Amino acid sequence: MLFQSEIEILNSYLKKKGLKQGKQRLDVVTVFLETEKHITPEELHDIVKKKHPNIGIATVYRTLKLLSDCGLAREVVFDGRIARYEHNYGHDHHDHLVCVKCGVIKEVIDPEIENLQIMLAKKHGFKITNHRMEIYGTCKKCGS
Amino acid sequence: MLFQSEIEILNSYLKKKGLKQGKQRLDVVTVFLETEKHITPEELHDIVKKKHPNIGIATVYRTLKLLSDCGLAREVVFDGRIARYEHNYGHDHHDHLVCVKCGVIKEVIDPEIENLQIMLAKKHGFKITNHRMEIYGTCKKCGS
DNA sequence: TTATCTGCAAAGCCTTTGCACTTAG
DNA sequence: CTAAGTGCAAAGGCTTTGCAGATAA
């Protein structure tokens, strides 16, 4: 079965919290894990509706919340105010390169920048817990 | 008069667009420029209300929009979904160090990181238009 | 059986908009 | 005088919540 380990993580989280495994919830989780990253709750809802026409968007929101709580999803808010989620189990920390024309999002990582961020924080007496970095511009295809 | 140059920028923008200078709007602008950075529309509204008990929050939103359009304010959305604004005329580009305990926000800049961001984008075929970087952690006062 | 899960609709937040009145130019 | 500004309340998006019926353990 696909996503064996992710499902196990979810299940052990559910057990720990005394929660149950609903059928719809599992479908939302599966679609979420199958799908390209950075999806909005509404987009996810639309996809799941193809299999479960009756599924409510509330279930999608509740499931995404659950996935965030157990560490399988991460909320990323790009410019604007709509939340997008990416599944991050098995993915290392990364930052985002966002094309402002076509909307493509590339995940990138630069160890040197990461290191400098730590130094910068330290210089100001901060102890880092996490950070976010997004670079906006035009991708190669969209030119300047 | 304080904020002479900012007011001039605003006025020339208004003239260019054929807009007028309302009294309330000017008060919102003045308070905004006087105030510590990273204020929410609601906080700004509360302060302005002390002088103009009748001012509507709609005017505050409209004024902030106007300030953003003419480049005097910048919207920054930290974790969560409430917009905060900072006035940025005469301020160089900077990033943010946010204390997750006491909420203090420090503006920082690291030329080396800036440079690496450009290189990183270039490596992926992106031409940068802008970027945002926020580092979350605990400040010196709040310890670890 | 019993607490959780779900869909639905209602409620909540923050933000924007329509309207009638006021005011700047 | 005329178009823009303002306050108010209503409307709009996105997200959360309350509730009653369905379902997992």
Give keywords.
homodimer, 144 residues, alpha+beta, Arc Repressor Mutant, subunit A, Dna Ligase, domain 1, 2 domains, 3-stranded mixed beta sheet, DNA-binding
Helix/strand layout:
2 copies of one chain form a homodimer.
Chain A: H1 4-17, H2 23-34, H3 41-51, H4 57-69, E1 73-76, E2 84-87, E3 95-99, E4 105-108, H5 111-123, E5 127-138
Parallel strand pairs in A: 3-5
Antiparallel strand pairs in A: 1-2, 3-4
Helix pairs in contact in A: 2-3, 2-4, 3-4
The structure holds a DNA duplex (25 and 25 nucleotides).
How would you describe what is shown here?
The structure is a homodimer of 144-residue chains. Chain A is of the alpha+beta class. Chain A has 2 domains: 4-87, Arc Repressor Mutant, subunit A, CATH 1.10.10.10; 95-137, 2-Layer Sandwich (Dna Ligase, domain 1), CATH 3.30.1490.190. Helix content of chain A is 44%, strand content 20%. Chain A contains 5 helices and 5 strands. In chain A, strands 4-3-5 form a 3-stranded mixed beta sheet. Chain A has a two-stranded antiparallel sheet with strand order 1-2. In chain A, a hairpin with a 5-residue loop joins strand 3 (95-99) and strand 4 (105-108). The radius of gyration of chain A is 18 Å and the shape is globular. The model of chain A has no long low-confidence stretch (mean pLDDT 88). The A-B interface holds A 77, 81, 83, 97, 99-100, 106, 108, 110, 112-113, 116-117, 120-121, 124-140, 144 and B 77, 81, 83, 97, 99-100, 106, 108, 110, 112-113, 116-117, 120-121, 124-140, 144. Chain A binds a DNA duplex (25 and 25 nucleotides) through residues 18-25, 41-42, 54-59, 61-62, 65, 81-83.
